[in-house]
Amino acid sequence: MARHPGTARPALFPGIRLFSLFPGPRPFTRFPAYRYNPGMAKSRIGTPCIGVCSTVFGDSMCRGCRRFSHEVVDWNAYTDEQKRIVWRRLDELLALVVGNYFQVTHAARLAEQLDYQNLRYQTQLSPPGWVPDLLKAAGRQRLDYHQFGLNPLPAAAGLTPRELYDRISAECYALGRAHYDRSFARPVGTTGELILRAAQEKGLI
Hints:
This protein is mainly α. The protein has 7 helices and 2 strands; from the N terminus they run H-H-H-E-H-H-E-H-H.
């Protein structure tokens, strides 16, 4: 049912308007098809890139998309199966960390609200992987997480969405770096050896 032109939509975050986001929660009268579709995720292998790449500044793991530096560089050359492996690792990482703070109780409600608020989220990820996008957009404004199909756990108590986003990002980065150092990092004795290895990997020598 369309709103009367003279009526205002209730503000989800009163007094603050972020890039025209969060005009108000959508009434939970019905839910369209759940946007996350594993079949679609398998047939369309998109890039995790969100346009913020810290690997150009020397990070071994991107703070934006959470891929390792070699995965960023080689992504376009990967087979679909290799890309799926990367996506699965990212999904497991996010699910592990987000699961310390939230339980997704209604995935369809979360997807509907993210769509309604015009928030971009990665459909290659399972629902816990969408939570950081919501937290980042909300900033320091308090949310009624239950309206988004989320049940906040004790670890989330007293923290703003932005603080939760920062914690989740930091924990993901720490775990990802530990995995990278254990699985991929190689000790380098001298700067000359580092340059030599880089040249060899690029096929220059």
